[in-house]
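Dear support,

Our group has been running a series of protein-ligand predictions, and this particular one with 2'-deoxycytidine-5'-monophosphate is the one our PI (initials K.S.) wants archived with full inputs and outputs. We had some confusion internally about which version of the output was final, so please treat the block below as the authoritative record. The input we submitted was:
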Amino acid sequence: MRRPIVAIDGPAGAGKSTVAKGVAERLGYLYIDTGAMYRAIALQVARAGILVSDQSAVVAHALKTDIILQTIDGEQHVFANGEDVSAAIRTPEATRASSPVSAIPGVRKRLVELQRRIASDGGVVMEGRDIGTVVFPDAEVKVFLTASAQERARRRVEQMKEMGVEADLEKTAEEMRERDLRDSSRATAPLVQAPDAVLVDTDGLTVEQVIEAIVAIHNRRTETGE
Ligand code: DC
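Confirmed final output from the archive:
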């Protein structure tokens, strides 16, 4: 029997990465950050000097880009054509470019295939925007993670600080709003809550409490099928 798939979707800064990583650790599952894949494609496209408006060139480049996720010392690393781009994909430029690149259907098709292949045996916690709606509509556990816009911007600034980058709270909040609007209003696989996903608002909850809640949902589903 295939082991369960835990799908965690939600807007930027909702805490998906930290929570998904923690849940995977607790369950002994593989953690997959699908945003890192879109970021890696966006980075390679930008480096090649391809304009995002040239959709066919973007897709052709995406098809030529070999993306591999690997866990090294407990951290997920992303490799693009053999190069570890884990740090390069987190710059503000790569972040900005990732949203329009991810709206291109041919890019999504390629990455969704890859995501399904990686998780074919189950036992995976996958986070993104369309995991419970498009990639794994039959996932055993679906969570839609969110938090207030203010809290999400604050967390993103904190995260950047840890990476040694000073970010302005207002500007970060504005960029996040723009990105969320674009991710939620695109034609292909927009960010929406799956009808059968459990909504978890993380405002006022600790990371540990959120992880605990998701592990409890997982255990209930797998033990009783509820
Ligand atoms: O989760 P993130 O911020 O690293 O994602 C970067 C961009 O990729 C984000 O703007 C939306 C897009 N994305 C997507 O469209 N589908 C996914 N499954 C994951 C990310």
